[in-house]
Specification:
Helix content: 10-25%
Number of strands: 13
Largest sheet: 4 strands, mixed
Strand content: 25-35%
Number of helices: 3
Mean pLDDT: 86
Strand order of the largest sheet: 2-1-11-10
Order of helices and strands: EEEEHEEEHEEHEEEE
Low-confidence stretches: none
Radius of gyration: 20 Å
Length: 148
């Protein structure tokens, strides 16, 4: 991210209009600090991914490094870059410094595909073995415990 003098950017996101005076807008990208990101879109950067309410998107490290940037003691987020990653439509009116983001598809397919836990086999209390792959496609609740 190259620093430019900020001017008020308007973000149109899921029916909400937010003026962000500290955003940095270029021809291809719009950078928001994390507080403005959450206020204008509901998204938040967490250790488990980029989250909106209970939904978290796991972002590969190479993509994350292109959309999250540290500058001037702040963390900045490239909302347009994230939209490109999600293949979400957006448009930018440079003359009025307005960014409009289209609706997320109900059939969102994460661009990097599903993530599967590695297969493993463990016995139950009676000694019968079960593999995680036996339950593929079903919801599985795993309770783990250790005495150390």
């Amino acid at each position: 991210m190259t620093h430019q003098d900020p001017k008020t950017v308007t973000i149109l996101y899921e029916g909400k209009s937010t003026s962000v005076p500290t955003a940095v807008s270029t021809d291809d990208d719009v950078w928001l600090d994390l507080a403005d990101l959450t206020a204008s879109t509901g998204w938040d950067v967490k250790p488990e991914g980029i989250c909106h309410d209970e939904t978290c998107i796991i972002v590969p490290e190479d993509v994350m490094s292109s959309i999250v940037n540290e500058m001037e003691n702040k963390t900045w987020f490239n909302l347009a870059g994230f939209a490109r990653f999600l293949e979400r439509p957006y448009a930018h009116d440079n003359a009025h410094n307005v960014w409009s983001f289209g609706a997320m598809s109900d059939n969102l397919e994460i661009p990097f595909g599903p993530i599967y836990a590695p297969d493993f086999t463990l016995p139950d209390l009676e000694g019968k073995s079960y593999s995680l792959s036996d339950f593929r496609g079903k919801k599985v609740f795993l309770a783990c415990w250790a005495s150390w």
